[in-house]
Each structure stands twice: as C-alpha cells, then as structure tokens.
Design a protein that fits this description.
Number of helices: 5
Order of helices and strands: EEHHHHEEH
Distance between the termini: 44 Å
Low-confidence stretches: none
Shape: globular
Radius of gyration: 18 Å
Strand order of the largest sheet: 1-2
Length: 123
C-alpha cells in the first residue's frame, strides 16, 4: 500500500487518490500493466469486450478468445512473448490517446495529427 512520491523522493504509506479523489481501491487488481499501463476496470472491460473472452462469448471476432481480462488482468504481464503487452498498449493508445480532445481550447489530437501528416510531417 502506498506510492512513491518522485518530487520528495519518499515512500508514502497512504493510498494515492485517483482522479475522483477515491482511495478505497486497495486490494483492487486493476493497477497499471503493459507498455501504457492499462489500468482501471473500465479499460480492462473494453479490452475484454473488443479482443478478449467477452467478444468470443458474444460470437464476435476475438484475437484472445480464451483470455478474460476482467477476471485475470495479470495476463497482460504473464504473456511470455510480450505480444499481449504491446497489443494492450496499442489498444490503449487508440482508445485514450488518439481520441484526446481538449474542449477548453478546441484541440484534437487526431485533427492535429492529420494536419501534421498532410503538411509533409513538418512543423
């Protein structure tokens, strides 16, 4: 239990609050895993829905039909070939990073990426 505070170079014994201020997730198995630290029950649920056991159970295409990411999120780190770590990371990138939009300034990652590529990848 606790977290490492990089700024003070100390180990804090208390739980680190999430973005909603909640600290009641001790013992939860949804801590970050993989190359982009996939975390949270919602993100594991999305993995399961699109590429895991839930997709297979609903007769949709699944590249990991025998993996239930919700029941065993540690599977991401257990994969000996490391393929799953990168697949989970790419899924996270597509879902979280590419869809980033800042409504305060009207900035969209995807729109800016298209502009960058269309302009010959030159700032």
């Amino acid at each position: 239990v606790g977290y490492w505070d990089e700024a003070t170079q100390t180990l804090n014994e208390m739980s680190f609050p999430n973005s909603y201020g909640r600290t009641d997730v001790q013992g939860c198995c949804f801590w970050g895993r993989g190359i982009l630290l996939t975390r949270g029950s919602c993100n594991y649920g999305k993995l399961n829905f699109y590429i895991g056991a839930k997709a297979a159970a609903q007769n949709r295409p699944s590249i990991y039909p025998n993996i239930d990411f919700c029941a065993d999120p540690e599977t991401i780190c257990d994969d000996e070939s490391m393929e799953l770590r990168y697949v989970a990371g790419m899924f996270e990138w597509i879902d979280r990073v590419q869809d980033y939009y800042d409504s305060n300034v009207g900035w969209s990652y995807r729109d800016e990426l298209y502009k960058f590529v269309d302009n010959g990848m030159d700032d």
